[in-house]
Each structure stands twice: as C-alpha cells, then as structure tokens.
Write a structure and sequence with these properties.
The chain has 22 helices and 34 strands. It is of the alpha+beta class and 766 residues long. It has four domains: 115 residues, Sandwich (Immunoglobulin-like), CATH 2.60.40; 167 residues, no CATH class; 170 residues, no CATH class; 134 residues, ph1033 like fold. The termini are far apart. InterPro entries: DUF2357, PDDEXK_7. This is DUF2357 domain-containing protein. It comes from Fodinibius salsisoli. Pfam families: DUF2357, PDDEXK_7.
Length: 766
C-alpha cells in the first residue's frame, strides 16, 4: 500500500458530540515532530486513528469554550488558567489514544481518538513481525511431543474483552503476515491440478479413431441402426449402434488439496466472525476482526474458489500439502491456528492493553525468544522451555512470560573438554545490599532484562557464587535506541572535540535527554552485580560494539544489533560473541580464571591486621610488594667473617636436611623476598637484604671454591641476595623477639619466615 500522509504544524479537528453538535479541537506541535493525517483506508488496515502524533513529543491543544478534555490520564496536562486548553504529552505511550470530551458540568459528551505512533518509521512492520514470531514460537512449543499440553480445548467467547483480545492477537499475527498473503496468492496463481476422466455418449458418425472399447461396443451395443447396402461393412456388420460411450481427460483444480485450502480459509473466517460478534461494540477487537474477515472473504470470492467443492476428507498426508509452495504454508497455519486461538499471554497487557501498541515492550519479549534460540544453538543445549512457559489453565493455554516475572531456563553444555551449567534467565532480580560472598548486588536491587549465567558442572549455583566460579552476562533490550551514538560517543581523537562532545552530552542531560542512560545502566550492572562478566544492549540497528575490559572477551560492555526482520536479523554478531564466550570458558588458562581464583583466595577470609608503617611504595619493580603476601626469611649468621662473605659474594647459605638448625623449606621460605640477619646475642637488627631469586643447591666444594670459611655440610641451600637501599625502610631496626616464631636460647639460631606485615609490627622502639 502506498502511504498517503499529510503533515501539519497546526490542525483543527472537527468532533461530533453525542448530541449531534460539532466542536473544533485545535492541536499545535511544540516539538520538531508534526501532526500526521493518514488516509482512512491505511488507518483502517492497521487499526489506527487517522490523526496521528508522535511519542516523546509535546503538543498544545485548545477546545472550544465550555468544553474540556478529561485529564484523568497521565498524557493530558490541563492548563490551570483555562481548563479548555493544555498540553498532550504522550511520553513513551504508543497506540490509539481516546480523549474524552466533557462539558462544563464535567459530564462526558463525546470523544476524539488520536494515534500515537512510534518515532521508529518501521514500527508497524516490526510490531507485526515480532508478534508473528512469538506466536509461531509459542504454538510450536505446544506442538512438540514433550509439551505438557495434550488435551483438547475450546474457545470461550464469553471471556472478558482483554482475554479475548489476547487470543485474537495471536491469530491476527498469523493471518496478517506477508507469508500468509503470499501463500494464498501463490496457490491461486499456480494451483495444484489433476486430470479428470469423463465418459460421454457420442454419435458413432463422429468417431474418427475407434478404440478397442468402441470396437467392442460396435459389435455388442443395443439401439442399433442398419447400414445402407452401399456401405463397405454391410456384409460383415449389417448394423452399428447409434451412439457409443467415449472417455476423455480434462484438467481440473477441484482437487482434495484445493478443497482443503478452501476449508481452511472458511475455518479462519468463521473464527474471526465469532471473535467479532463476541467483542464489545467499541473495542478494537471488533474492528480488527472485521478487517481480517473482509480480507479472507476477498480470497474466497476469487473465481478460483468458485470451482472448488467442499471437502469430503482432509488429505493431511498429501505430498502437495506438505511440500508445494503456498500449500505447505497454509497447512502450517491451519495446524497452528486452533492452538493460537486458545492461547492467552500474561505479558500481552504490557503490549496491547486498552488500545496501545507498546512496540518497545513487544521487542523485549521478542528478544527473549531470539536470545533463547541463539543460546540453545551456540551451547548445544536442550532447555525444554515449554514446561516453563506454557501452562494449561481451565479452558486456556497460558503463555506465562511477563515483565517482572522471573523465568530461569537451564541446560548443560557438554563439550569435549569441559561440562558447563548454562542458565538463561528472564528478569532475574539481583537482590541489593548483599554482603560478600553472597550473590546479588552490593548496592541496590538490579534486574536486567536477560541474564546468561555459566558455571562448572558438578556444583550448584550457590557454591559457584561463593567460590567465584560463576559468571553472569547481562543483556537489555532497547528498541528505541537509534544507533550506537545514542549509547557511545564517537571515537574522537582531538581533545578539544572530545571536550565539546562531553559538553554536548551534559547539556542534553540537563534538558532531560538522557542519551547515555542505557550505557550507564550497563556500567551499573557490570559494577554492582557480583561475578558479572559483561553487560550489553540489544537494539534494532545494524552495527555492533564490543568493549573489552582487559584483553579477553569478558569482562566487557557493548551493544549488538537484533532486528525484527525475516531475511537478516543481524543476529550473527551476537552469535559470534557467544561462540567466543564459549571458547573463553573452555580455556582453562584464561586470565579471568586466574583473577577469579585470586579474588576468591583474597576475600574468602576477613582482612587481617592493619599496617600503617612506612614501607616502599607499591609500584614499578616493587608492584608485587603486598605486605601480607611478602615473606621475610629471618636467619642466623656466625660472625663478622660470615657476614663479610655474604656481602662480598651476594650469597646466603642455609643448612639442608633434617638436622637441627637446617632450614625447613616450604612455599613461604622458597618464595621469600627479603632476608633479615642476626647473630649471637643480637635481638635487634637492621641487617635486611633483598633476595633476588629462588634458592639453589650448592655443594660443599663449590662453597670452598668461593672461600666460604669451614663448610661443615655436604650441601647447602643458597639464596642470591643484594643490599637494600637504606631509604627503602628508612633505617628501621627490628626486635626479633617480638616475632611469633622466635625461640630463645639455642633455638634463636633456627631460621624461620614471617610476613612483612608482622615484621613491621616488630620495629624496635627508640
């Protein structure tokens, strides 16, 4: 259909009141979006009002004196000076808006219907396609063998208008689809046909080429005529039958398959008529059902169907119905149709309650099914969603998906090297103000639209949270995001332009245009929800952006396109990302796994004693100088000669073996970063050396070669050491008797290790 639209900055709209009088309502656009007047036929096709406004725009209105518009809703902002004027502020509302007109006494005396259209130019087709996809997905769930629904249902036309419309919306999405129209026209243009054999009595004189059957009839049939004497066959036959029975073949379209198509269309027409009759007089259901009824009647009035008789059987196993283009689509619709007519949807009120068409909410539901389908394929899992999403309630089949209602769907990803638990959640709430290591948010409650949670198979979710083994990846659906510039500022290199861009963003936020609010929400998910590996926006665009926090695919932030199109929904970017996530989890040497372990190891216990002493700043080559993790080896030297040898060769030797005085080597001793030396009777010492690398084993002979005085052991554990800058620890002295592992007497010569934190608390007092 060619769109016929007229755009107005100001429009006077005549409205006929209930008493027959006519008044004028004037509407003026305050913002850039004008008032649109569409063709009546187009408005009727889409179930819309002809006068149309735009969401997120504002309009002034003025009604003739003594009349006013009821301001009980949130869209009407009535003037406090003149109740006959005010502003229309649709905000995010999309759909048909009914304005009740009241007289000076406050009594309703008429109404005006306006359409609030989305700022997205293709929202009409998006709305149809998304609802169609949800219908197909839901009815296919019901047709699965594993579906919990096996009993037969009938449509209750006595249900309330909202429930009726929920049911009707599903079948409407099927019958208004482009595929349905194309299927019917394809059948009419290239129908299935067959050759029909017919028998007819013909005058024998018209026979030119007699068949065997005719020859038999010539000799045996009755009602004969005598041949004239001059006839060449007079002597043999004498007479011939007056008429003989002949057979011929004629092509016909009155086939079992075409009779089924006609039956299916009549079934669709009957249900739409029933919905129309059951709908309240002014409800949108009546008008929309009537539109579809007219469309189907146009199909059935085509000359093609005039030649088709009523079916005596339904040839559901026919190869033509199952394979031929057009026929297979109508068969599929027919199989889905009854289930769709019985299906109600708890979330439907979010989408089309009253007469609204909340395409943004519908996009959120549509993305759920798209994401679920993608996750099932990428992680090769079977989630059995029908058991979670479809419920038989009385005479209804209820699709339970609803905003704010938590739905977890689980599966197991079994790869060649690792088994992973996969959980895809809709509207999972991460409870706020949770102390570590509990799951949830450490600030306020957070509820992303969708959360993909991954953790190793073999443990439950609670244990995975406590041990830092689970990763959450969040997605939010944002239908109204136009492009990536709505989320991320362009990559501007010039610093002056960067500042100008930030100034522009700040000004827009002051004006209430929070362009980057969605980006900030992704940061909130990433930073507030524990064990979050990434947060991403899904929007109906064509570009993707994946910002990595470090080097690997997660943690990260970004956006992926997901468009409600049949041919190219742009989901490949999302699929590639999820494939990379799976590969990342199969990499057991990833940096994220290492960080996860260190996080768990660091935070599993409450912090130890504080340390407020002066120590080297933790940067550059000293970046790993963490006091609690830095070990100091406290060891003995024999005297001045031994100390001079240590300083000259940069080596310190310790006994090995099981004898008393030998160094019992463990991870703390082997990984010590400093060496503190003391000798006989020396309990306060400043002899701190830095250990350069892990200890090595040297033989007695090697020490002799290095002029070590009187080595007594066959082998020694030797540390390479160097002098510590005197300014590093500000000429500190330590009292080793304050250390927990110190032993007095002969035991004072035994080597032991302490943390730098404990050592700094043993500073000698002046």
């Amino acid at each position: 259909m060619v769109t016929k639209e007229t755009h107005h900055q100001k429009l006077d709209i005549p409205v006929q009141l209930d008493n027959g009088n006519t008044i004028v309502i004037c509407i003026i656009s305050e913002s850039g979006e004008k008032i649109v007047e569409v063709d009546e036929a187009e408005a009727r096709e889409y179930g819309e009002a002809p006068i149309q406004l735009y969401e997120a725009s504002t309009y002034e209105y003025k009604v003739e004196d003594k009349y006013q518009i009821d301001n009980t809703g949130r869209i009407i902002r009535q003037s406090k000076f003149n109740p006959s004027s005010g502003r229309l502020v649709p905000n995010i509302y999309v759909g048909t808006l009914k304005l009740n007109i009241c007289d000076s006494n406050g009594s309703q005396c008429g109404c005006l219907e306006l359409e609030v259209r989305s700022i997205k130019t293709n929202y009409r087709t998006d709305y149809r396609r998304m609802l169609e996809y949800i219908t197909e997905w839901s009815t296919e769930l019901l047709m699965q063998h594993s579906s919990p629904v096996s009993q037969q249902f009938t449509i209750d036309y006595s249900a309330d208008a909202a429930t009726l419309y929920q049911r009707f919306a599903f079948i409407k999405s099927i019958l208004e689809s482009d595929e349905f129209d194309q299927a019917v026209y394809k059948i009419i243009k290239t129908p299935s046909s067959e050759w029909e054999k017919t028998n007819k009595k013909r005058d024998i004189r018209s026979i030119r080429r007699p068949t065997r059957s005719i020859i038999n009839q010539i000799s045996s049939s009755e009602k004969r005529i005598r041949l004239p004497d001059s006839h060449p066959q007079k002597r043999k036959l004498g007479s011939v039958p007056e008429k003989v029975l002949t057979s011929s073949k004629k092509e016909t379209i009155d086939t079992a398959e075409n009779r089924f198509i006609k039956h299916a269309l009549k079934s669709f027409l009957k249900i739409c008529s029933d919905f129309k009759e059951a709908a309240p007089e002014t409800h949108r259901l009546k008008m929309e059902a009537e539109n579809i009824e007219l469309n189907i009647e146009q199909y059935l009035n085509h000359d093609f169907f005039a030649e088709i008789s009523s079916p005596d059987i339904l040839p559901l196993n026919s190869p033509t119905l199952q394979r031929k283009g057009g026929y297979r689509e109508i068969l599929r619709v027919w199989l889905m149709f009854d289930l769709a007519a019985q299906l109600t949807w708890q979330g439907g009120n979010d989408v089309y309650e009253g007469r609204k068409k909340d395409v943004a909410s519908l996009y959120e539901y549509w993305v759920f099914f798209k994401l679920l389908n993608t996750i099932e394929k990428v992680f090769d899992i079977k989630t059995k969603p029908a058991e979670k999403l479809i419920e038989a309630t009385g005479s209804n089949l209820d699709l339970k998906l609803k905003q704010g209602k938590y739905f977890p769907i689980k599966g197991i990803c079994n790869t060649y090297s690792r088994k992973l638990n996969i959980q895809f959640s809709f509207n999972k709430t991460f409870t706020g103000d949770q102390d570590y290591p509990n799951s949830g948010s450490w600030t306020s409650n957070m509820r992303p639209d969708y959360t993909l949670s991954i953790w190793p198979h073999g443990i439950n979710e609670s244990q995975a949270e406590a041990e830092e083994l689970i990763v959450h990846i969040h997605f939010d659906a944002k239908y109204k995001v136009k492009d990536l510039d709505d989320l991320f500022s362009a990559n501007i290199q010039n610093s002056k332009k960067k500042n100008q861009e930030l100034d522009k963003v700040n000004q827009e936020e002051k004006e209430g245009k929070y362009k980057r609010a969605d980006l900030l929400k992704m940061h909130a998910y990433r930073d507030a929800i524990r064990r979050t590996g990434g947060a991403y926006v899904l929007y109906p665009g064509d570009k993707n952006l994946n910002k990595k926090g470090f080097h690997e695919i997660i943690p990260g932030l970004g956006a992926f396109p997901l468009r409600p199109l049949k041919s190219d929904d742009s989901s490949q970017h999302l699929k590639d990302f999820l494939k990379d996530v799976l590969s990342h989890f199969l990499n057991r040497a990833s940096q994220r796994e290492e960080i996860s372990f260190h996080k768990y190891d660091t935070y599993k216990e409450q912090p130890g004693d504080s340390l407020e002493e002066k120590i080297p700043e933790n940067f550059g080559q000293k970046r790993s100088l963490i006091p609690d993790k830095t070990n100091v080896l406290v060891a003995f030297y024999k005297g001045k000669g031994h100390l001079d040898w240590i300083k000259k060769h940069g080596l310190y030797n310790a006994r090995t073996g099981n004898n008393r005085g030998a160094l019992k080597i463990g991870t703390k001793e082997a990984g010590a970063k400093f060496l503190l030396l003391h000798t006989f009777g020396e309990t306060v010492t400043d002899k701190l050396l830095k250990i350069k690398e892990s200890p090595i084993i040297l033989s007695k002979q090697k020490l002799v070669d290095l002029n070590y005085p009187n080595p007594s052991q066959d082998y020694y554990l030797v540390f390479k050491v160097t002098q510590v800058n005197r300014n590093t620890f500000r000429e500190v002295e330590w009292d080793i008797t304050q250390l927990s592992k110190y032993s007095s007497g002969r035991g004072s010569a035994l080597p032991f290790s302490v943390s730098l934190t404990e050592l700094m608390k043993a500073k000698a007092t002046d």
